[in-house]
Amino acid sequence: MTLPSIQDLMAPYVEKFPCPHTLKLALGRYGIDVRSNDERLIAELSGYFRDFLRAEGRPDCEVLAIECEPQDLGIAYSVKEPEPGKEKIKEEWAEIPHGRVVRKRLTDMLFLFGEGRNLALGPCLDNPNQVVNFINNRFIEHKLNEGCLLGHAAGVAHKGMGLSLAGFSGMGKSTLSLHMMNRDLHFVSNDRVLVGRDKGRLMMYGVAKMPRVNPGTVLNNPSLAKVMPEADRVAFKDLPIEELWSLEHKYDAFIDECFGPGRFDLEAEMKGLAILNWKRGGGDLKVTPVDIAARRDLLPAFMKSTGLFYDINHDMPVPDFSEEAYLEGLKGCTVLEVTGGADFDRAADELAKFLKG
Questions:
Q1: 338: exposed, middle or buried (C-beta count within 10 Å: 0-12, 13-18, 19+)?
Q2: What is the pLDDT of residues 38-52, one digit of tens each?
Q3: I need a labelling partner for 272 at 20 to 30 A (CA). Which of 64, 222, 230, 354 fits?
Q4: Domains and CATH numbers, the chain
C-alpha cells in the first residue's frame, strides 16, 4: 500500500477548516506564525506566549492548529515504547513520504509535519499544552538543523552569560533554576537547552515553555506562592517532605507573574554547565569543576534524544548526536559537578556566584 504524502494528508483538512486567526511569535530570532480556525485557541496561546509576541514581519515557519473532533487519517501507526521506568504508552507515529505523523493516544491529538508544513489537528482547546509543545518543537527542530545539540537541562543567565543546569532523573534542575531566579538572574529554559556555536562563541538557546512545578517546589520558594490555590496550600503544607515531593500535582509558573516582566530570555552565551549529582542526606554540598571528557559517566545527565517531533531533513547530513559530538560541542565550557546533600539555597548561591563572577 502506497502512503499519501504529508501534503496530501493535510490538504483535505486545510480546505475544510479555514484558519483566519493568527498569532505572531518571535522565539529568539525565529519567527513562527500560528494560524487557527478558532480564535479562542489563539487567545489561549497568546496568553501563554505573551513574552514572545511580535507585531509584524514574515515568519520563518507556519503552524496550523485546527480545532475539531478527533480525526482518523486512515493510516497505520507504530507504537513508541515508554521511557525506562514508565509503563503507559502515550504516543504512536507513522513515517510517511516527506514527513511524519504523531498521534497522542490519551487525547486523540494528531500532529503532522514535514517539508515545512506543520499541522496540529483535533481537540486543541482541551489540550493547549500539547499545541504549545508542538510549536516549541518547530523551534527545536530549526536549531537542530542549524547544528545545535539538544540538552536535557534548565537554564539561567546574568547579563547575557548563561548556565545550563542538568541532572539525573529527579535531581531537581528545574527547582534549582527557580531558586536561582531569586538571585537577580534571568530565566532561559525549563527542561531543554540547545547548544551551538555562533561566530566562535558557545551559545545556549532556551525553549519558550513555562516551568511546571510540583507542590514541594512551590512551598519552598516564596516567589512561586501565587501559582498554588490556597486550598492546595492548606492540604499540602504539613505533608512529610518525601510525600510532598512525590505528588503528581503540577502548576504552570509564569515567569513574569512570579519574578517580574522581562526576565525570560531565550539565548545567552554559555559560561558553564552544572550537573547535579547529589542526594538528600548526602552531606556537605560541593561544587567542583570536572573534565567532562574524563567523566563520561556524567554525559547522560545532559544528553537528550530528539524524540518523535524531530523529522530528519533528508536533504541535509544526518546529525551526529553521539557522546563524541557532545564532548566536541562542550569543548571550552566549564563543567561543574554538584555533589553532597541536596541543598537548593546553597547551590543557588554558589552557582549564581560562578555565573556573576
A1: buried
A2: 999 999 999 999 999
A3: 222
A4: 6-145 (no CATH), 149-211+253-356 (3.40.50)
